[in-house]
Amino acid sequence: MSAIFEMESVSKTYGKGHVAVNAVDHASMKIEPGEIVLIMGPSGSGKTTLLSMAGLLLKPTEGRLLIDGEAINGKSESQIADLRLHTLGFIFQAYNLLSALNARENVEIVMNMAGKRGKAASQRATDILDKLGLGNRKHHLPADLSGGEKQRVAIARALANDPQLVLADEPTGNLDSKTGEEVMELFCHGMGREQGRSMIIVTHNPEFERIADRVLWLEDGHLSNGNGRRQH
Amino acid sequence: MLKLAWRNLTNEPTRMAISVTGIALALVLILVIAGIFAGSEEFAVAYIKNEPAPIWLMQSGVSNMHMSSSYIAPELITEAEQIVGVKDITGVLYSGGNLESGEDSILGYIIGVDPQAEIGGPWKLVEGRQNPERDEIVIDAELAKRLGVELGDNLSLYDQDHEIIGLSRGNFGIGSSLAFVNKQTLSEWMAVQPDAASFALVRPEVGFDVDGLAARMQSELPDLNVMQQAEFAASDKELIRQMGVDIIRAMNIIAYIVGLLVIGLTIYTATLERAREYGMLKALGANNARLAIVVLGQALISAALGILLGVGVAYGVATLITKVSPDMLILIDPAYVLNQVPIMAVVTGLAALLPASRIANLDPAIAFKA
Amino acid sequence: MTVPIARRNAFFQKGKLVLSVSSIGASLAMILLLMGFREGLYSALTAYVDNLDVDLVATQSGNEGVVSANSVLPGDIHTELEELAGAREAGHIAVAGVIFTVDEDKSPIVLVGYEPDSGLGDPWNLGEGGYLEQDNEILLDTWLAQRSRIRIGDTVEVLGREFEVVGLTRGTASWMAPYAFVTLPAAQEALGLVDSVSYHLLRLNDGANLDAAKEAIETQYPNVKAIQPDQIADTDRRAIAAVMDRPINVLLFVAVIIGVAVMALTSYTSIMDRLREYGLLKAVGAKPLRLNVVVLQESLLNSFLGLIIGVALAYSSAALIMAQWPQFNVTILPDSVWKIAVLGLIMTLLAAILPIRRLDRIDVLDVFKA
User: Fold this and answer.
1) Of A20, A101, C234, C324, most Cβ neighbours within 10 A?
2) Which ipTM score applies to this complex?
3) Which of residues 163-222 of C touch B (CB under 8 A)?
4) CA–CA separation, B86 and B53 (whole Å)
5) Is residue B323 scored above 70 in pLDDT?
6) From CA C68, how far away is CA B110, in angstroms rounded?
């Protein structure tokens, strides 16, 4: 089985000449199906930039990205957007739910965008929310949900289109420790890891190491294994 | 607090631009409609003001030229001429008519003048001559342009062709375009005697006191109304002003309502967006009055900018329109502009009420919400 | 069925929705009212002719309007005209524009002198009082009387002559020039029309050929035109339109721009409120077109609701205006509503340009902000 996601010597440079700054400097990684990979590091180390590139939201200055063996370089904006829609799932620290839509609709809308409509989409959204323990909250607006519930809706949304890779940015950053634990449990057992879904989690929270297969360390733009060895 | 108001506004420059534009345009409506009437007043009295006749005679009971009819019998003119102090009296006939050229037609006032008369005709001639004989006509140069005709061309008036023998200036205004024809011909048309008149222009002897002469003429000619030039012009201006008053008021009310809604919409949504910030300020101790000032400040700044822009645009529009369509003179009176300022201030204050009350009801704990 | 995100967004904040839709409604109502005012003005001006219950009107050639022209015809061709036309009834009227002054209030009116015996050309809607019997009597428009604080039994002065008010008419009000009625001899005397009238009115025998009658008259009298009342109305409308359309169009244009600005403001504000959410959608794979469609749908929804409110507001305002100020006839034609709907659609699309461009500039990476 080929890697679901590959980063080959990817860099992101801001500015030019002697004022150029490498937010990410020749980072490489490979994610196999079903893997949970943590990216940790001090603030300002470039984690968000790295995740943005991995999530096809930011174009690298150098290097190659491959999804399911296919290179991203040279693809059109439209094709990249499609990849994000069908292949990737996103979970953010600030949840980013649509305030005018209820929980179920927040999940349903990304399915609509991917071409799934009507009862099928609605039912699937309900099923995912049920599985995440939000069965009786699916008609509530985000304003009426707790932090933990909002993050679970976000997780449901990330899973809606059955992505191969889920990217999470500080998923427990805005939650209390107990709720954070619950969410972490979900990441471990409720995200379809057994079915081959992979995850990249950017986090400060050392508790995540318990559920991760690998820990990568990002410092000053340089990506290395958790034990400090640089990757080439 | 005002600094915060300014910052809040300028943080969204595009939105601020749109709302300032909306307010400006509401003001433009107000100024333009008033300006149209003011311009109309000017044009309407142009004839009276520009003819060198300090005293005017008209039918008793008539004190206007615009939209009026007047008849003076020839005997009365003869009588008037005998009065000591009168140098000469020039009678003109006055009627409405459609000036047509092909498909285009303009409604105007037709003045019948005696070709021998020294006054009563166009006071500024651009081309040709100004003493029309039978089947001849003098019209304004701009009107000629509008109708697509030139000196020497024919215009139809009362189904009769008239040759354009002269082009004048200052006789082309909305609702008060003037054309000059031969008095004899017009008298036939109006079925009155050629020596009759609608209005008579009186020139006093040199050195004679005009006030005294006017008074004397009035007492000796009870069947006529004797008016001095300025009085007559003022009367016509007043007529138009009165006609416009209601419309202007109606238009203004509508425009103010629109302005109020635009300001209200902007400030209200800006306030909603910053609910957390206001809540935070409240948590830090700012009282409702302080915060109301921020909201009011935003509203006032928007209104002030809107007024400045609106005045500028109104003058621009007025100039542009008068250039393109010289018969539509739009006169914007600075005093009138200044009068709008307090009204807009009140409107602005009203617009700030809803957002201000929303802030008053804000729970400071909102600042702590994730 | 997809999630109706545009609708959800639009209805999420009730206060903002109300303000937005009201603003759009108000600006659309303003446009409708302006159009209605124009239409009403023309209807009011031609009210007399529209209610003339005759088949043919003989008018001086070249003077084929009532409000816009001064037709003069000999009175004595009356009998011959009847014969030529095969008319069973004939009447004559004298019509002229004069200024009606009460104290300091001036109002242009259209004075109609008709023959009470024939009844042709009489007011079609007498609200109060009785019809004319004597030459020193007058019928005034109800609004004009109210405004001048005149009641039945009062004496008024027109063209220097005194008349007793014996009745008040309805349907004769106009901002520009309401109608007033006296007997034909009284009008002739006041206007200096010796043996002349303005128009001959003819009611033809049943089955009479209109065209034949016209030809007969016009052949016998080359300076007379025999036309139907609606042709006169047409002439009048065109004449007034040539004068009034330009200023009204200027106001309409400004009103439309205001509407676009209001719509742009609403749309833009909506986007700014949800910048992060649109960013999120972009991040999870929504293409620009899809987001533009969502924004456009929300704009169209707002505009549609605004249109409904605007139309309701326009009609109710019109009714209110006419009840309060009867001199303003505001006629909102169903045709105008369709025009506004189409116009509103175009305005919405135009207004969406700026907000959509703002969408394009969303920084997707904002989704990572805490």
Assistant:
1) A101
2) 0.87
3) 175-177, 191-196
4) 11
5) yes
6) 12
